[in-house]
Every structure is written in C-alpha cells, then in structure tokens.
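Cross-check.
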Amino acid sequence: MGYCVQCSRLTEESIDRINCAPGGLELEGRDFQGDHSGVLDWHRRMMRCGMTGFSFRWGETVRGFVQYMPEESAPSPIIAPGSAILLCFHYNVTPEQGEGEHLEIERMMVQTAIEDARPRFDGMAAVGWDHVIHFPVTLLEELGFRAVDREEEMALMWLPFREGASGPSIAPQTFEPLDLTGEGRLAVDLSWSHRCPYDVHHRARIARIIREIDSDRIAYREVLMDTR
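Predicted model, tokenized:
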C-alpha cells in the first residue's frame, strides 16, 4: 500500500490542525476569499453537539480527517433516528503518494469512523455523489453502504449496524425560493455554511460578482445552513 498514516481522535483542542481548517493543507497556496474565522468556531460548536471523528497524520502533518455525529443534532437533511450521520471526510495526498492512493486512504478513514460508531448507533447514513473524488457513491458501496434514494447525481446511502434498523429518509423541503414574477429581475438564493472553506470562498466570490454586475437587477439572498 505504501503509506503509514497515524490516526488520532479529534478534540476541540486539536480540531484547528485538520487540513481544511485555516492554515491547513487544503488552503495552502490557494487564493481563498472570504472570512474563514468562523470555520473553527463551527467545528467546535458541533463537537459540543456530539460530533466526533479522527484526524490522520503523515509524519507530523495532518493530511486527513473524518467526522460523524448523532442524527438528532447533525446539520443535515437526513432523518435517521438512532443512527449516525457521516458528515465529511477528506485527505490531501503527499507528492510521493499521488492521487492513486487518495481514495484508498479515504476508504480506510471512513472504515475507522464506521467501526467507532457501530457499538453506539443503529446504523450510519450519508449523502453520496456520482463523482470520482468527492463523496463517491462507489467508495461508500465498497464499505457496505447501499443507496436507498436517489435524485440526479446524489444518493442517500445507508449502512445498518443492527438487524431491523429503520433506514434513513430525506426531510421534506421547507425552503421557498424567491418569486420575482413580473419584476424583470434575477433571483439568486445561495446556501452556505461555515463548516467548509469552499462554502466561505464561494459565498464571497458570488457576492462580489453580483456587486460587479448590477446589484439592482439581482435579488440576492444568503441562506445559512450551519445547524440542525
């Protein structure tokens, strides 16, 4: 396999060293826009609400993490009482590893979360994507998850830990988009969260573009999805 990754449980004190935190590997050398100061606050708040997980080091550098939390407090549209929600996992490979080992390491990371959650929950649910890198459905299927619902490129994935455990479902949509019928303006509704530096970056980038185009002709609304 050619790698030696060390695993540590995440804590409120160590969460600031994960690769997607400000100063982490995922942001290194990238021109990220926006204020990322809320990223760590979000992670610490979620840990106080039951989020747990692991960081993964190569040498002294944290290159990966996986997070999950109880359904009843998870900031997720998944309904799965008694089960855990797989929130996020990500690994930055070294030049020696190359992209070929990326998914292999992430598979190991998610397996670590599964085994950690198994004694305490009825199952684990997640949202998978038909994407080769980001939350790929195929990776989750290899770990025993199965798709119980699909919508376009997304799939609701389920891994039961107990016989007879109830499967997950997606909560009904309550968000109503802006209706500008007859106004001759464009409506833009942007959902985002402090949880991810990419969310913060795209929020700042899109808001700037709208200001530069013609803010009077665009009705712009931000929807913060930070909590349950």
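The longest strand covers residues 61-70. The radius of gyration is 19 Å. Passed to J.P. for a second look.
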